[in-house]
Structures are given as structure tokens and as C-alpha cells.
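[Meeting: bench + compute handoff]

Bench side (C.D.) handed over the final construct sequence. Compute side (W.E.) agreed to return the predicted structure before the next meeting so the bench team could plan truncations. Sequence as handed over:
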Amino acid sequence: MLRLLCNTILREKATDCWILPVSVQYDRVIETETYVDELLGKPKEKESLWQLMTGGGSKLQLKLGRIDVHFAEPWSLKQSLTEQYAAREYDRVLFSLGYKVLNDINSVTVIMPGALVGTVILTLRGRGVGRRELIRRVEWLRDRIVAKGGRVAEFGNRTTAEVVDR
């Protein structure tokens, strides 16, 4: 898609295109069933924007829990092309712009509460963990992520214990 947009601008079929990196996270994993199928050897079905927009596979009808949407600063594709194209070959410019989009998305991405709980559970060894210890570990992980400059979604007015219970 980025190549198509760049070609359109370079051929002067469009004056510019503004890139708006968007990060979307939700509590529930909607790909659970397809992931199980993939683990059993079934090839992954190709997804399309059209399927998502028209409700193909009815993913839009699922109850996803909390959804967080964050936008990075928009930027001009034409300006970025102008700045980079003179100094580099075209394929390198495309890779650079692609990584810029990914970096911008990552810069506004937050870690969802469910992902914190899931991460702690996945790192446990042994037979299990008590509720109090799970809460302590989730709080520790959240604090470490924030201390290292990461972003964690707000729990709203829920305590860590309520997040773990949910």
C-alpha cells in the first residue's frame, strides 16, 4: 500500500498523502479460534480490509471488551519522500517509511490490562499462583514497564485486584 501511495505521489497523480498511524488494542483476542486452527496445521486465511469493513467473518460483531485507540502525529508522505529520495534508492526509502509508520504506531501503543495478567501467567513456573501473588506480580510488571518509558492503559477506576478478577 505504501509503495502504491509513493508511486502515486512521485508520478504526480496526487499532490500529497497524509499518513496517520493508528494503534488499536482490545481486551479480548478475536483470533483465538483461527490461532488454534493454525496450530493444528490449517493454513491461515488471508484477511482483507474489505472483510473487516463489511463484517466478513463477523469480527465486528464480537464483544471485544475495552478498546483503546491512539493516534500518532500525522505526517506528509510527500515531504518525507522529498527529504529521503534524493539520498537513497527507492526500495530503501520505502523500507524507511514503513519502519517510520511502525515506529509511530509503537510510540502510541499502550499495553492493555489483560495483556499484563496474561504475561504474568505465561511466565509462571510450577503449579500455579495465588490471587494475592498474581496481583502483586501484575503491579510489579506494570511499574517496571512504566519505569522503562512504556505505556500501560489506565485501569479506569478499577483496582489491580478487580482487573485480575475480570
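W.E. noted at the follow-up: The beta strands are 18-19, 22-26, 67-71, 75-76. C.D. will use this when planning the next construct.
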